[in-house]
Amino acid sequence: MVYIILDISGVEINFLRHGVKTTFFKRFGFPLRILGMMSGTSGDGIDGALVQFEKDGSFSLLWHQEFPFDANIRTRLKKLMNGCSEDEIALANSWMALLYSAAVEKFRKAHVDKIDCIAAHGQTLAHIPQKRKWGGVPLTGTLQALSGSWLAEKTGLPVIYDFRSRDMAVGGQGAPLVPFGDLRFFGGLPGDTVALNVGGIANITVIRRLPKPKVVSAFDVGPGNLLMDALATKISSGKNCFDRDGKIAAAGKTCRQLLEELMEDPFFELVPPKSTGRDRFGQRRFESIWKKWNRKLSPQDLMSSLLNFTVEGIASSLEKYVLPNGKIDRMIVAGGGAKNYELIRRLKMRLRGKMQIRISDEFGVPASAREAMAFAALGEAFLRGIPAGIPAATGAKQPVILGAFAP
Amino acid sequence: MVYIILDISGVEINFLRHGVKTTFFKRFGFPLRILGMMSGTSGDGIDGALVQFEKDGSFSLLWHQEFPFDANIRTRLKKLMNGCSEDEIALANSWMALLYSAAVEKFRKAHVDKIDCIAAHGQTLAHIPQKRKWGGVPLTGTLQALSGSWLAEKTGLPVIYDFRSRDMAVGGQGAPLVPFGDLRFFGGLPGDTVALNVGGIANITVIRRLPKPKVVSAFDVGPGNLLMDALATKISSGKNCFDRDGKIAAAGKTCRQLLEELMEDPFFELVPPKSTGRDRFGQRRFESIWKKWNRKLSPQDLMSSLLNFTVEGIASSLEKYVLPNGKIDRMIVAGGGAKNYELIRRLKMRLRGKMQIRISDEFGVPASAREAMAFAALGEAFLRGIPAGIPAATGAKQPVILGAFAP
């Protein structure tokens, strides 16, 4: 058994795989241009990001673009995600490949850069990370609709796909995968870094350089935009679905009592790794807040308080579970929340003297391209034989190479 | 657009793929030992065959072995094949990988030979070769349960899998795939060859050397053992499920009238490519024959007539659809029928002067290892960047590389 050390992006990653170095691919040299592609559970479209990787480990985003699904496709996808048969899955594999290839065609029309390879997530139809007894055998499993063979054939490009399975084969949850992208793109920075993503839920990736850059943990820290978006939708009667630039929150004052009440949520006492979602910080939670507080507080004050809830969830998680293990030099913010100026301003205020707050875009990773770029990074790792599974994030027994390849 | 000619087994294969030679793999040299693995729709187990491929194109079967499923597994598999949900498929992918890896473990215990790579079919849960309109989009698709990533992780060996999808992406039926194995293993012989497989149904692969060995057609020619097996089961009240060595048939005399009646089946008038199955030559057909003839003929005479039906289906198909296009030097017989001496004897008699009748085993391909060996050949082709899809067999628009790769 030997450890192999590969150098990417000034980031050295230790790995171990059956004691043998496994690099299979001879066709791919540098610069390497990988198109990362992602379609999420929201089912609203495919994000693409073409990343150029250089031999010295540096990278640059050549472009990123969205391929939105039309209403017809969204409806069919929702239906699929609510349950389907083996025949529907056989067809969905081909169908998603056709949609992904239509996206590639659109991207190619808009940009001239040569693409070497596609790294595509596919559309999750099932994900069972906890062992389920099935005919006496405890099993986990995951299913992303996308035929790599079809996509390769239709685009004429090699395709890397099925990124989640192998981590689950070594006891991991097959998620989250994006922390590897954070490591790839931010691991080369001096000092220790937290990558924060403020989507519906807020989550962080903690990267420490000791002695080599490494993801030491990755977990959900509390609500991101879910509650604020619900409020924006409510007070505009559905006209606006979010508080653009944080303007509503900026015009209000936070209610201490409400904030304290919200922070009593037992989620914040759970020791990481942990994850949460809509069931805890979604519409139902919002409705109960609204019912109790909408007569006592102005919409602005309510928004301000919910924004501070997000800020406090992030900051207190850092104070409880990250900073005790060593200082953090910077927190890099991505996701929709990175565009909420008021959120950034208050995060800076709240964590002043503890760490810098920076926007992901400053480091070559536009907030909205982060996920698709992460899949490009996963593709690079696959081609170079680098295990991209991160046990600290997924709970796997060991880091393994993620993905399968259709030439 | 350029044609690329690669030499395997003295067989040269023309192919075209986006005008570019695509060989991705640098790790694999010669000799190359590939474990072909197959589990069929009967759901009774996994066949394995370790084939060693040499640089000069020669090959040898190192061993072949079966991994039978126990009753519990067979029951669950039958249930799965009768319909399942997305969650069950996610788990079935992992489950089949565990079963395949258990088979590999058993094989490794019995044989010391180093395995370089696995080429595995998986378990078909859905196969939709005819375009089906689905939300307005006409689609085909196929689904073999087997996570390549899981199998690679559990065995520590690279895995090639998902062999059927890509042929379907270019309009093919994704089946049959075994003709490529016939081409690989018999294409190096001098002259023109028909590979005959007598399973439940009988099918042939026609290989002509003009100017390079090529599969010119592959199709079902009529019943194989289905009707004879049904009769063996009936007359032994379930004790025997087939006519061992063809002894019952050898003791009988064929009834001309019955044979003529059977040969009136319109299937024999269909121009190839064509396929058939249990619906035409299965239990229901047998019952109607039995009802009409069991008082008029002895069991031996009935068996003899059914055997001649199989022989006549094969011979007349050759006479109608193969021999008019040029002579055939030999027919190589595989499948359960290859062990039926009486079948072989009557085939020889019926086709005397037209072609030699030989048994697959004589050419290094034991009849019972033929399918698993074909998957080993498909694995070799994948690693060498050789398109193994055969349009003459599947109806695809062009030959494409088949398979995906988990390192």
Give your account of this protein's structure.
The structure is a homodimer of 407-residue chains. Chain A has 14 helices and 15 strands. With 407 residues, chain A is of the alpha/beta class. In chain A, the strands form 4 sheets. The first copy, chain A, has a 6-stranded mixed beta sheet, with helices on both faces. In chain A, strand 10 and strand 11 (201-209) form a beta hairpin. In chain A, helix 5 packs across helix 13, helix 6 runs antiparallel to helix 11 (299-322) and helix 11 packs across helix 12 (341-350). The longest helix of chain A has 25 residues, at 86-110. Chain A is globular, with a radius of gyration of 21 Å. Chains A and B meet through helix 2, strand 7, strand 8, helix 3 and helix 4 of A and helix 2, strand 7, strand 8, helix 3 and helix 4 of B.
Q: Count the helices of chain A. How many? A: 14
Largest sheet of chain A: 6 strands, mixed
User: H/E order of the elements of chain A?
Assistant: EEEEEHHEEEHEHHEEEHHHHHHEHEHHE
**Poorly predicted runs of chain A:** 1-22
Helix content of chain A: 25-40%
- Radius of gyration of chain A, Cα only, in angstroms? 21 Å
What would the principal axes of the Cα set say about the shape of chain A? globular
State mean pLDDT of chain A (0 to 100 scale).
91
Q: Could you give a short description of this structure?
A:
With 407 residues, chain A is an alpha/beta fold.
Keywords:
homodimer; 407 residues; alpha/beta; five-stranded mixed β-sheet; 15 strands; disordered N terminus
